[in-house]
Amino acid sequence: MNAPVLTREIMIHTIAVLLDGVRHVAVGASSPIPAAAAMLRRALNERQDRERVRISVLGSQEHNFFTNGGVELFDCAAQGRVDAFFLGGGQIDGQANINLVGSGEYPKSDVRWPGCFGSAFLYFVVPRVILFREEHSPRVFVDKVDFVSAPGTSEPGVYRPGGPHALLTGKALFSFDKTRRRFMLRSTHGGADAAEVRANTGFEYDLAPDVGPTPGPDAATLALLRGRVTDELAETYPHFAQELAAERKAA
Amino acid sequence: MGEIVSLEALAGAVRDGTKIAVPTDYSGVAMAATAAIIAAGPKNIHLVCVPASGMQADMLIGAGVVGTVETSAVTLGESGGAPRFMEAVRDGAVRIMDATCPAVHSGIIAAEKGVPFLPIRGIIGSDLLAARPDWKVIDNPFAPGDRIVVVPAIEPDVALFHAPVADRFGNVLIGRRRELASMAYAARRTFVTVERIVDHSLFTGEKDAAAVLPALYVDRIAVAERGAYPYALWDEYPVDGAEIARYAKMARTKEGFAAYMETFRPGKARAA
Q1: Strand pairing of B212-213 and A102-103?
Q2: Does A160 score more than 90 pLDDT?
Q3: Which of A33, A85, B43, B169 is deepest in the core (most CB within 10 A)?
Q4: Using CA atoms, how far apart are residues B101 and B111, in angstroms rounded to an integer?
Q5: A243 touches chain B (CB under 8 A)
Q6: Shortest CA distance from A123: residue in chain B
Q7: Interface pTM, i.e. ipTM
């Protein structure tokens, strides 16, 4: 319980803060940190006696209230009933374009990734999309993606109620300005400072006037994260929940 | 309709060039049938993943039976990338039709409704539009100037999935996995493997009827105990993540993949 706060715990807490005010957050497959953050947001709101947060975790039996098959998440988002979602990418560029397909020439990519999943749709219709990628390196954060799975912004006239809200990595938190089509570095963590973030980011971005360390959770929030949230997480992500517990022990 | 056959007879109906639709990892993946299809060895099948796939697609591709893969993604989830899929796409050994999840659902639902296409939001500005010349951008006929993507109906020759129970009349329990019903409506023929077949009708009341795919849409059923293994089957058994990780490691090379497939007998070997 007294282990120092892990970088992953700071990330989970940061996402939970970004989710403040949502009523329904959906989490895609293979997204343990976003799932933990959504569960933390729900637990925090309960503790503070605030609005109830609904969570849909794809692939989970317990944390999934959909009854109309695989299409329901997308229909639900199209109806404006999904407030937040998470997307990542093998590459993300400075205009918030994301690439989940592969690097190099398409289709015979040098490195092929799984594929677009729902990104080319959800990025357009979910108001608060949080871009999340733990690895913060120039090969991920590129000037221009090799394949646009989903664009960060759209031309006028294209139906686009949704889009990028923030970008969280293992080193930094950025906000995104849709009008300027640029990220702004807000804070750093994971032992990185603004110079290290600069050195590991392949695109241009703005600097907030007060770039400092990303705030971690207070003691009560950390206790929620290490107790209830880790237990809830274990149903869908048993491996990750064990990893977190082991990291805490080792810390 | 709803004919009960052997697993081999079911798999044997997948022939060269068959367009076959399969569900995603947690919806009842017919892994035992996949092994039987690979044993029968059809060529050049067109695999439609509704809307994504994992080990099933990777195995079919690695075994050389797939000509085209139409999918939103192929991944082994927590065990990482799908090695046979990634190599085959990179080498051009399979034709890839990259999609996005709701576009696959829309194509299936268009076929379900018997209409040639469905409109779908999003996608405009994605490189998918260039990769998928069969998708078009049209002007909304009711609001000129509002551009919207339309995707063509996907009509599989065969829909294939695994479910817990069928009754002897050919009705199949699909629970809340409604995409399995959509796949069956859209496909010319539907093949289902099940854990068991019961003598009583699954239509015992309103509560149960809502979770049943009627025999009208089901062509062949075969029993395959633990037929989704190593994937989970809802309310029956959990996913075996260690086994998927073992596959992920072995399938990194062609030789390792071949060695894995030598012993891959879902439902028989490695009972929990």
Answers
A1: unpaired
A2: yes
A3: A85
A4: 16
A5: no
A6: B122
A7: 0.95
Same domain, B246 and B124: no
Range of the domain at B173: 3-99+155-270
Q: What is the pLDDT of residue B268?
A: 52
Q: Residue B24 — φ and ψ, nearest 5°?
A: -80, 170
- Kindly state the DSSP code that residue B81 receives in the 8-state scheme: B
Segments forming the whole domain that contains residue A111: 7-250
Q: Do A71 and B102 touch (CB under 8 A)?
A: yes
Quote the CA–CA distance of B178 and A67 in Å, as a whole number.
8
Is residue A1 situated within a structural domain?
A: no
Q: Do A116 and B52 touch (CB under 8 A)?
A: no
Alpha carbon of A210: minimum distance to chain B alpha carbons (Å): 34
Residues in chain A closer than 8 A to B129 (CB atoms): none
Q: Chain B: residue nearest A58 by CA?
A: B26
Query: Phi, psi (5° rounding) for residue B194?
Result: -140, 160
Do B121 and A121 lie within an 8 Å CB cutoff? yes
CB B184 within 8 A of CB B49: no
Q: What is the pLDDT of residues B105-134, one digit of tens each?
A: 999 999 999 999 999 999 999 999 999 999
- Give yes or no: residues B173 and B221 share one domain: yes
At B153-174, the pLDDT tens digits run 999 999 999 999 999 999 999 9
Closest partner CB to A116 (pick from B50, B73, B146): B73
At B98-108, the pLDDT tens digits run 999 999 999 99
Contact status, residue A136 vs residue A170, Cβ threshold 8 Å: yes
CATH number at residue B40: 3.40.1080.10
CATH code for the domain of A175: 3.40.1080.10
- Nearest-CA distance from B131 to chain A in Å? 8
Cβ <8 Å between A70 and B101:
yes
